[in-house]
Amino acid sequence: MRGEDTQNQTLFSYVRTDDRIPSHHPLRLIRRIADAALAALSDQFDAVYATEGRPSIPPERLLRALLIQAFYSVRSERQLMEQLNYNLLFRWFVGLSVDDPVWDPSTFSKNRDRVLNEDFAASFLDAVLNADKVKGLVSSEHFSVDGTLIQAWASMKSFRRKDGQDQPPTGGRNGERDFHRDRPANETHASTTDPDARLYRKGRGKEAKLSFIGHLLMENRSGLIVDACLTKATGTAEPEAALAMLGDLPDGRRVTVGADKAYDTAAFVAAAREMNVTPHVTQNINGHRGSNIDGRTTRHPGYLISLAIRKRIEEANGWIKEVAGMDRAPFRGLPRMSGTFKLRTAAYNLIRMPRLLAMG
Length: 360
Hints:
The chain is of the alpha/beta class. Among the domains are: 18-115, no CATH class; 139-152 and 211-330, 2-Layer Sandwich (Nucleotidyltransferase, domain 5). It has helices at 26-40, 42-48, 59-71, 77-86, 88-94, 105-115, 118-129, 237-247, 266-274, 295-298, 301-310, 313-323, 334-359, and strands spanning 142-151, 159-161, 189-191, 198-200, 209-219, 225-232, 255-259, 277-281. The longest helix is centred in the last third of the chain and has 26 residues, at 334-359. It is globular and about 80 Å long. The protein starts with 25 loop residues before the first helix and ends with a helix.
């Protein structure tokens, strides 16, 4: 018998949101780990909120909403609020019931600025890695490091001379600008849209763009990111950031770090060895120079193993930029961008947990 297409708008629902989420859905495990990490940050949350007054959006819900934005490539916070209004999976993960009202996008953005900073994001990343189920997945001996270019939210038209002697753009919302005979350089020019952005090109034959550089430190056992930072785009930013992240590792045993040719510099290799870190760096040999990595390092089997595993850090860079939306900066300014980059790095670790723990 054919069923009738009856349009029945029921007023009440007696099914919980939790009952609509499949028991084997990967977000269930991710939420348990995220909730444990957020619970560990409770004292830090208390320190930035007043004890009296009107309750704000709970910081736990704010950060869970930002995680779901990264997981599902939601383009903007306005679109995120729209999807929270009708997407039951998103509501369940954030912690909203079916009847709870969704926040206004401007209210959400205002509250987000309070908790989305580098300190909170770093604490959340550490809390995820220190969760009971995750500790055993992390190596404390072998690491890899890499940097990736993140295009700033600023156009080349905003890259103006610091002394104001260049020709101003024509009038209008998107006025034209004559670049003829203009030689832009970071020493003489700065972006009026994002002063922290720097003109940088990825390599020979590539166009120069206003950019930041994101840096990741990966442990080699499971390919989880143990540290991340964002810096201004300079020629020495990658080895300098790598040394800073390696310096934050616990003191004690000797560790190894795999890296690409950009890290084959005398300063990086010498500083790493002084820090009790063995640099397993790809040799950068050409007609003008030799490598700073010699047979003392390359003769060991572990050198080739590190170089092979190091490539997995590119997967993290790709996910953070393409899926989590960091290929183009969503905000302006280094402070806001640093917190966003670290939080989406933590999202990458979380999205890998269902498979890693199932394999373990």
